[in-house]
Amino acid sequence: MTFKERLHLYEKLMRLDKPIGILLLLWPTLWGLWISSYGHPNWVILWIFVLGTVLMRSAGCVINDYADRNFDKHVARTQNRPLASGQVSSQEALLLAAVLALFAFLLILMLDRLVILLSVPALLIAATYPFTKRFFAIPQAYLGIAFGFGIPMAYAANVGAVPLIAWVLLIANMFWAIAYDTEYAMVDRDDDIRIGIKTSAITFGKYDVLAVVICYAVMLATLAGVGLRFKFGALYYAGLLAAAGIMGYHYTLIKNRERDKCFKAFLHNNWVGAAIFVGIAFDSYFRFHINF
Predict the structure, then answer these.
(1) pLDDT band at residue 35, thresholds of 50, 70 and 90?
(2) Dihedral angle over CA of 197, 78, 188, 217, nearest 10
(3) Global pTM?
């Protein structure tokens, strides 16, 4: 195998060819960065977090495939992944994950000491998430914490502390992750039942669609509460309203539990995160820069 072919396998292992995971991890981090900096983020800090997001999501994908290497080969959608197919060894995968995590850690050494301290639980949560599918009925909640941990880290980087709002935003992200990853799990439900993996789609059973709708609603209500508590403006709520409209479209996709449409709904959650971020960014800009 040539060096170029080996790099291509590593790219697939890190899912760089499927950026949806990076985006779902990045949006809540950007929410935290913009809100904690009053709409005026430090661009060095911003780029550190963006690069760190790419690195940690890539490391997380490698660890996930390592943990699931004996399961993935029995699922049609994942049986050709580099680890499941034997094209990349377990040792290579662990080394790659360690290198990616090391580079991410080197990036945050330039930030506040509290960010460095928070990176330890962030890494542990990211590394242990794949194994929660063995025993936790709703591992998607754990994923939501992992994907939202950039929020308290963003606050730590910008203000040197992690106030209550950061944890509330993290909770909102957790409910969002349960919603979108349940849509994802609905695609593989039959295979997951057969091989014994636990997912929210299995746990919720015939109430899976209702659970997605409820989680979306709780997320929006939590974010609306944050807006009321901290006196955010109309543009912030416009972003939430746009996100609600997108979520309504997702319901039309998943209501009949068709695999392709459930997967489409999962991918489309990128626009939920984007709508909320645009609302935050515009609201912050007009409130703090133009006194709108």
Answers:
(1) very high
(2) 90
(3) 0.92
User: Which residue type sits at 216?
Assistant: Y
Residue 95 carries which side chain, given as an amino acid letter?
L
- Cα separation of 111 and 119, whole Å? 11
What are the tokens at 139? 């591992």
Which is it for the CA torsion 23, 274, 41, 122, positive or negative?
Answer: negative
pLDDT tens digits, one per residue of 254-289 = 999 999 999 999 999 999 999 999 999 999 988 776
Return all residues near 43 (Cβ < 8 A) that are at least 6 apart.
none
Structure token pair of residue 58: 């890539």
Task: Encode 105-123: b = buried (16+ Cβ within 10 Å), e = exposed.
Answer: bebbeebbebbeebbeebb
Q: Mean pLDDT, to the nearest integer, of 182-198? A: 85
Residues 6+ apart with CB under 8 A from 262: 183, 184, 186, 187, 253, 254
Residue 83 amino acid letter: L
- Which of 53, 256, 65, 37 minimizes the C-alpha distance to 156? 37
